[in-house]
Design goal:
Blueprint lengths: L6 H12 L13 E2 L4 E2 L4 H18 L2 H18 L19 E3 H18 L2 H17 L1 E2 L2 E2 L2 E3 L20 H15 L2 H17 L10 H18 L6 H21 L3 E3 H16 L7 H12 L17 E3 L2 E2 L2 E2 L1 H18 L12
Antiparallel strand pairs: 1-2, 1-10, 3-6, 4-5, 7-8, 8-9
Helix pairs in contact: 1-12, 2-3, 2-4, 2-12, 3-4, 4-5, 4-6, 6-7, 6-8, 8-9, 8-10, 9-10, 10-11, 10-12, 11-12
Length: 361
């Protein structure tokens, strides 16, 4: 835990706590629409991400408010959003009139948020909920050598494939499979490790086809976000030559495409993901850090944080820009990834970056 905090971290933390992005139920909205003055629907995935982010903010700053808000998020997932009849978590909570779905990727992110809470609190409820989500991933999404990305509820049939990356299986699912690896580390159950290895094998075999994956620059930028999930998953096995090589080569691909597309469309989360990956790859001895490029990325990331009188906006990070125009989404994931990237950059500059991959939001 650090006694030093930065103004951008304090502002981002206040946004998580005071903006209303966390609903009274404890669940987190997918984003806040600044042009409409309203939150989007509550997302179980985003609530899992927020739980991880709040636990990490508590660890870095020591502020108990962060852990309290994280607990509220975890209780929402375990007690309110969980569907006992389907034995899984739906994509969004209480969606009237829509066909409910569950996503493999979302469940893995939720497992990781619940595991962060369990490690921080020792409360068995969070471990039990994480194991229930991990069981759903294995049971409901199995598809031979890989896992279906989406199933319909309550019948749990694979959803029809769609062009969007999130509706197709792919290497990005490796980040979600980190949830199984964390469960293995906690429980010692070999089946969790075996499932992670299955996803890793599939991801390494299929990753070369993922980029660019589309002709439109905007869609390629979206796929860069997903491809960074694959690279983030490799942090847990970077001691293996195949994983280290894929991580180094993948970072170069992401950086090149991001630079090409940024004048048309730039996402703050992709910038933050790239910076985090650079810093961790350097610490793991996978790829020496390009200090100048990392400094430019940190500056660009910090430029997405809002300074506004409106507490619904102040301290949050914008999703991105199209051309010179900022997009009207203040986003928990963009905020979490960005504040962690900037803190890791600060730690690197101070010569004390020693974060474990389990702390990756």
């Amino acid at each position: 835990m650090s006694s030093v905090t930065s103004c951008w971290m304090d502002r981002a933390g206040e946004w998580f706590l005071r903006s209303g992005i966390q609903e009274p139920s404890g669940g987190f909205a997918r984003y806040y629409r600044s042009d409409l003055g309203a939150n989007a629907r509550i997302s179980t995935e985003i609530t899992g991400y927020a739980a991880s982010a709040l636990v990490w903010l508590h660890q870095v700053t020591g502020r108990d408010e962060y852990l309290g808000a994280a607990r509220q998020a975890g209780w929402f997932l375990a007690r309110q959003a969980w569907d006992p009849a389907a034995a899984t978590l739906p994509f969004e909570y209480a969606v009237d009139g829509d066909l409910p779905r569950a996503y493999f990727f979302d469940l893995g992110i939720i497992v990781r948020g619940l595991m962060a809470l369990f490690r921080a609190t020792g409360e068995g409820e969070f471990l039990a909920a994480a194991e229930a989500c991990g069981a759903s991933m294995a049971r409901d999404f199995a598809a031979g050598d890989h896992f279906h990305p989406v199933v319909t509820l309550p019948d749990k049939q694979p959803a029809a494939p769609e062009p969007r990356w999130s509706r197709q299986p792919g290497c990005y699912q490796l980040k979600s499979a980190l949830g199984w690896l964390e469960l293995h580390q906690q429980t010692g159950q070999a089946s969790y490790r075996a499932r992670f290895e299955q996803v890793l094998e599939y991801a390494l075999a299929s990753q070369a086809e993922f980029l660019p994956g589309a002709a439109q620059p905007e869609r390629v930028m979206d796929r860069l976000h997903a491809y960074c999930y694959f690279l983030e998953g490799l942090l847990a096995c970077a001691e293996r030559a195949e994983c280290a090589g894929a991580l180094a080569e993948g970072l170069a691909r992401v950086a090149g495409l991001c630079e090409q597309i940024a004048p048309v469309f730039e996402r703050s989360d992709v910038l933050a993901q790239t910076l985090r990956l650079r810093l961790w790859a350097n610490e793991l001895g996978v790829l020496p850090l390009d200090e100048a490029r990392a400094a430019r990325e940190a500056e660009r990331v910090s430029g997405y944080q809002l300074e506004q009188a409106d507490p619904r906006l102040s301290g949050g990070f914008l999703f991105g820009r199209k051309g010179a125009e900022p997009l009207p989404y203040v986003n928990p994931v963009s905020t979490a990834f960005s504040v962690q990237a900037l803190e890791l950059w600060r730690q690197h500059q101070a010569g004390r970056l020693k974060s474990a991959w389990q702390t990756l939001i």
